[in-house]
Inverse folding.
């Protein structure tokens, strides 16, 4: 068993619009994201199943030919390998869960996020 305190995990500024705190377990990655209005996550895909949970704010996901707007209290499951992008409509706090864990984030091979 491992205990984590989100208040003690350093906030990593990925871009001026995107900051994150991350926990990697043996089988999953949990990320708390702070996203600023006007931010954009470029089209990408990954082998991980992803669950995005919006605590506050509003995001627009573009995936599989669909546009889905998520607001506070809503969640979205993104299947593995589905290309998707995200527009940040309002300052937002989001928790993302990934399984398996994000090896690309661990190795620093997440350049698509830094654009």
């Amino acid at each position: 068993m491992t205990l984590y305190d989100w208040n003690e995990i350093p906030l990593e500024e990925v871009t001026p619009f995107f900051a994150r705190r991350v926990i990697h377990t043996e089988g999953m990655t949990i990320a708390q994201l702070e996203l600023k209005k006007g931010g954009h996550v470029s089209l990408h895909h990954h082998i991980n199943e992803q669950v995005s949970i919006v605590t506050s704010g509003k995001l627009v996901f573009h995936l599989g030919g669909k546009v889905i707007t998520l607001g506070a209290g809503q969640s979205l499951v993104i299947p593995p390998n589905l290309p998707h992008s995200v527009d940040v409509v309002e300052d937002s706090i989001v928790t993302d869960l990934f399984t398996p864990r994000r090896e690309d984030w661990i190795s620093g091979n997440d350049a698509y996020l830094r654009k």
Q: What stands out?
A: The two ends are 36 Å apart (CA to CA). Residues 13-114 form a domain with the Jelly Rolls fold (CATH 2.60.120.10). The chain has a mean pLDDT of 96. The first helix runs from residue 103 to 107.
